[in-house]
Amino acid sequence: MQPILAFLSGTSLLWAGLLFGVVFGFLLHRGGVTDYDVIVKQFLFRDFTVLKVMFTAIVVGGVGVFILHGQELANFHIKPATMLAVILGAVLFGIGMVIYGYCPGTGVAAIGAGKLDALAGFAGMLVGGALYAFTYDWVAAKILPVAELGKARLPGLTALPEWLWYVALVAMASGVFALVARVEKGRIA
Fold it and tell me: Which of 26, 71, 109, 178 has a beta carbon 3.0–4.6 Å from 3's, enabling a disulfide?
């Protein structure tokens, strides 16, 4: 069976990636998540724009990966699930996002939108990346082996079919959207 999107290969695949990146940045800007105040208000539970935009991106990305993999246009490159590293990274990411007022993607999109305050955090991202590179040997020896699950995916860990995980993702996002709508409606009333 010929994949539907088989025309996307070689150089055209690179151009498609660039186009999708530009469209994603544009949508982040239009969605309001390149605004410092919107992100800070998310952490104060006063504005759920970030939650809605990111859940939408996760669902679209997840379903997109499912389709691309099914069309044999993408392969999974599964990295080992190193749980301590994931937890520590998530904590550092959250702290950095609260201080910076952007996540890395929205920070770069904010720079593209001309917001100069985002440049300071971008410099911090570069410094953090360099620090990680210089300390990688220590991290690899002391942190990565702790609670390491190997190259694991949820379908393999649970023996549930992959499509069911995508259905669950869409259902969870729908539930979160409904809950957020109720919270927002309660604030207006």
Answer: 71
